[in-house]
User: What shape does this take?
Amino acid sequence: DADVTQTPRNRITKTGKRIMLECSQTKGHDRMYWYRQDPGLGLRLIYYSFDVKDINKGEISDGYSVSRQAQAKFSLSLESAIPNQTALYFCATSDLAFGGTDTQYFGPGTRLTVL
Amino acid sequence: DAKTTQPPSMDCAEGRAANLPCNHSTISGNEYVYWYRQIHSQGPQYIIHGLKNNETNEMASLIITEDRKSSTLILPHATLRDTAVYYCIVRGSGTYKYIFGTGTRLKVLA
Assistant: This one.
């Protein structure tokens, strides 16, 4: 979905380097998420944010940190990258709808390789 | 959130309807059924969701059984571009959490 963009789209880095992945959205949504996907597996939630002042850990937050710079921007950092963080990373956004549902819309992904 | 079961793979002839089943026998009353698809390694794409009634949009139709224990996603006229992994997800209203399983790999054949 072009309304959710991620940069970079591909990144190769070395063990121990600090890496930042960025996500921007023009959908006007309050909620933003970071997921990772490993080959052949489903997506796993790393962090999520319901508004600029609300940041929460997901199921696999160890080794990651995030920053919600504005409603439209949510960054994921790997402070010291390690090879098992090699994966596809997806950002998503959503907004709480009538009835309590929120449909998440995903960005195109960042392929990260840690050597 | 209820667990879902999907067949690992399916084939469909181009131009025919693709019917993708999903079992969610432990679904509870306030849980919705969502469908997403992922083409190659692109970001998951939202398709449709529903609670009790059948739903239709420009992409697909969602048929939910009366007891809500299973559902079927229907792509009415499958094209080669519909080749993807399709995920059925059950989640409650008010929850942010999506549990992506391994999905069904649909291959549309020319």
In short: Chain A is about 0% helix and 55% strand. Chain A touches chain B at residues 1, 4, 31, 33, 40-43, 45, 48, 50, 88, 90, 92, 94, 99-109, 111 (CB under 8 Å).
